[in-house]
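User: what does the whole thing look like in 3D?
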Amino acid sequence: MFGFILRRLAVAIPTLLLLIIFSFLLMHAAPGGPFTQERALPPQVLANLEAKYGLDDPLWRKIVDYVWGIVRHFDFGPSFVYPDRTVNQIIAAGFPITLTYGLLSFILAVVVGVTLGAAAAIRQNTWLDYLAVGVSIGAQVLPNFVMAPILVLVFTLILGWLPGGGWSFQNPDYWIMPVIALGTSYMASIARITRSSMLEVLSSNHIRTAKAKGLPARKIIMRHALKPALLPVISYLGPAFVSMITGSVVIDMYFSTGGIGKSFVDSALNRDYAVMMGVTILVGALTILFSLVVDILYAWIDPKIRY
Amino acid sequence: MTMIEHNKIEGMAARMAAEEVKGRSPWADARKRFFKNKAAMVALFVLLLVIAFAAFGNLFATWTYDSIDFSVMGSAATQGAPSIANGHYFGTDDLGRDLFARTIQGTRISLMVGIVGASVAVIVGTLYGATSGYIGGRTDAIMMRTVDILLSIPYMFVLILLLVIFGRSLSMLFLGIGLISWLEMSRIVRGQTLTLKNREFIEAARATGVPTWKIIIRHIVPNLLGVVAVYATLLVPLMILTESFISFLGLGVQEPLTSWGALISEGSGTMRYGTIWQLAFPLGFFVVTLFAFFFIGDGLRDALDPRDR
Amino acid sequence: MTRFLMTTALALSFAAPVAAATVAEGDVLDDTQEYRFWMLDALKSADPHKNTSKDGSQIVRQLFEGLMTEDGNGAMQPGVASEYTVSDDKTVYTFTLRPDAKWSNGDPVTANDFVYSWRRLADPATASEYAWFIELMNVANATEVVKGEQPPEALGVKAIDDHTFEVTLKSPTPHFEKTLAFPSTYPVNQKVVEEFGTDWTTPENIVSNGAFVMQGHNVGVDITMVPNPEYWDRDSVILDKVTAVTVPDANIGLTRYQAGELDRVQPPSGQFPRLLKEFPDEAVARPYACTYAYLLNLTDTGNPAVQDQKIRRALALAVDRDVLVGQVLQAGQQPAYGWTNEAIEGFTMPELDMAKMTQADRLAEAKAIMEEAGYSASNPLKLDLMYNTSEEHRKIAIVVQQMWKQIGVDLVLNNLEWKVYSDRMNSQQYEVVRSGWCADYNEASTFLDYFRSTGYNVGKYNSEAFDAVMDASKTSDDPAVEYAEAERILAADVPYVPLYQYTKVDLIKPYVKGLPEHNVMDAWYAKDIYITEH
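Assistant: Here's the predicted 3D structure for the full assembly of 1150 residues, as structure tokens:
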């Protein structure tokens, strides 16, 4: 097991490096640069800016410098669009926010999703099942850019219960709408996956045996069915967890949370190369990390799996 | 973001590959089972209605999707409401364009993006997965490692950049949306190919000197069709959802063309301003169609899955 | 974005300092003196020399103070400088700084601070995007310093003593006075900038000399500012708190305004008439010194058909601007037939023939021209229109597309994101492009210089007659005559299709007082604002 983890981590480094090079090339292929604007900058001003940020270097040099900066000082470079701040500062400011609402959404999605899915499977073909299936598909297909403004309309303007946006680590009132808007569609996916895998497990031989032995239903489900039924949920949760804690542009836009979900899309559109690379690397590293975590969890839950 | 229960499809794929040994075609049985599934039949009927709406709706439209009703322009909230009298059955948008015609137009584009995008994903995913699984060895290892790396790239990043680098066009949208979702598909196909490749009929083909690519195309791929069909059906709503997000970012199809995503994001912006029909009609079609695809996909899978036999 | 100041007249010296916020008679102050305004995006920089956005200027103007500030009409008021003199040849300006001007850490604001700051703006090492502003001010050696040909010390600025600041210009520059309240010219504190580097603008580190200091900054969420106790005119500052709230979606902004979370917001596109009806006390539309136009690419990379002046005229004729401003924009915008914004001081648009015609006549003439040139519905002239992503640009493009369809033009809409759009526009890879111009300062040359063969002029319009008239205006006793002639030449050559003149629309809570009502550059100062009882 330990050797497996080491091996995986060793592969992660070249993977990340490839990711950096690929993203770098793709990014620099996009027309326009960080200082392109409707009213073009005079050439001497542009030249000063490019010299300052090393944008006039050849591409290979830029990649090498960039990677070297990360390796030496863990320095992801300066932002071109936010000249007062470095990428490290931007991520340090935004990531805790997305992490907070992402984690809460994750907990909400898992708890509600698994409960709903399991309940639907146990009561298959009852009104509860139909309701759960209907709600979960509905929640998946309702775009969150429709849901978010409706939430603000209802909870802020009509009811006046919650602030219409902004962020505070001290005041949970600010967290509620982002968590609901982000968590709902994941909750729905989790419910669907739980339901279908639970159904499969419930019809399997060892559950039939347990039933035949006359074990109480609650015990069968908690002891024997839930654990194997959660395996597919876990493999879904790996990537879902990463995309939840790295936020969403829709959430950051409609609730002004200041998270990095918006930085990502903004930096792509602004050609803020370093910020975009920083966020890409963050998401990539987390993705690799959590796919490893999923594999470890798998081995823990299902003793048949050996690495 | 995934909507597809990969575990179920993998289970089904494994069972179907095993089934092949018995040399039975699952298709006739499957058709029977599918027709017995009420939810799937209703969904199929609804989907056909939506397709008919997209194909023939224009026969009933009195306006084209791009023409402006100058008498309504700028006062959509008071004069643009749905009305039989002035021919705007679904009302107008705030520029006075007929929403009925635009919904038809949007339905066409969205269905097309969904279907073409899913096809690109399925074709690339199937060929890639089948090749990787069939050839095996080092090639397989490299090809699958590549998939792992690609899976760690934030896909919105790729899509945004593609649309930026190559400009916004319908074909780029098809390609871009399709190209980011073949990865999971290729993994499932590879798994099934691994099971298939040691079957007698494949070995027989190999022994008679049939070239590799021919074996993949002629013998492996046809045996994957069940999985591919189910996967494709479930990919379509995913593609449509992705397109709607792209439209929300303002990188979707060019005006005056439109899509459900573009119409919905416009409608959700103006929903408070007395033109709720701008949101209601496109969102209605969107939700109903996506529901239909989900139920059809589920129905297909249940029908094709040999588990219960 | 380029949004610059305008001024009316400027006296050479000022009699007495003007009290900042003046409470109008009958107004009762509220107990809570907080003003919360909307920003579309996160603040990019609070550094006056690195700020590039209009939103950023709104913050910088509260935190810092330049040599001059403006009153409610945009007229120049004394700021850090209490008075100044101009040499006889109009190239040397000597400013007397008020001795009680202080930084928020208690240090006095000295002439050396201005010397350091203006050099910093021009210094290639700073790499300010607005370094060109010091060139526009025409300070001696500005261009050479920006190009790196001369050291920053060569810039024409000098501290005679702690409270006397001297600026030497390259040549007499009438608009120089009008640039002195622009945020790029504000001083920064050398000690703090050098100590903290790029981190000097965080709330913990920042030292500023304006009426307010930064108290908190949650990036992308909000910025809070409180009165600066060291400010020389602290006694007339009434607000206790100014908050800038970032809301990246205009519709949500409106919702939050209505929920009472914001005091000022810009209404979403197209909603102004409805809001005006619903909230007549809150919806405001004011002229704004910008002109919106479709520019035509006159180079080889453009469409060959638009080389023909007649076709260009037909395109300009066929647009029904009354429909655009009355039914699409609906916020008090004015139809434009010329280039210069008519709210610009001292400018009168000459009578242009196109402006006098009825729309029916215009359309008839346009149709005749196009028919003669062989274009029709069955054989349309295919043109490509490029515009950047925005609700308003989209709507206008769609409507113009329909208007041009009537004269046999098939306009293909090409919506590009900002960077690609800018890149292609500046490299002449377009046929027709949505663009416009905003005043850098309040004088007609800021618009008309655009179309000189050496101007920004992305369509590469090139007219010797036009250049000659503009050259003449620089030494003219009454440049208004040359400006009128220049507009006539543009109207005859039609290198662009003018569409409309901007307005600035806002929803402002009725209890907010002291916002400028006649500043066509939309510059406001929180030290003038107060909140009445509500």
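In plain terms: Chain C has 16 helices and 19 strands. The radius of gyration of chain C is 24 Å.
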